[in-house]
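Hey,
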Amino acid sequence: MSKESYFSWAVLAWLQQGKRKKREKKREKKRENLKILRRSPSMIPIHRCPPSSNAVDEMSPPLLFVASNKETKGVTPLR
């Protein structure tokens, strides 16, 4: 093997090693991102939008009205 061909072979090997390390770093970064995405459902935060000013209060249940008996007059609300 001549000195020039050995030199070119060494340079190519060095460049390939650099590319390999770069690919490995990229794969490792992807793995870390996947670990973050693969959280259990209890760890996933729930984001809620703030209530709008013209929205009805969703926290309190709506009142249900039942027709009154003959004994009582009017309508009684159920909760």
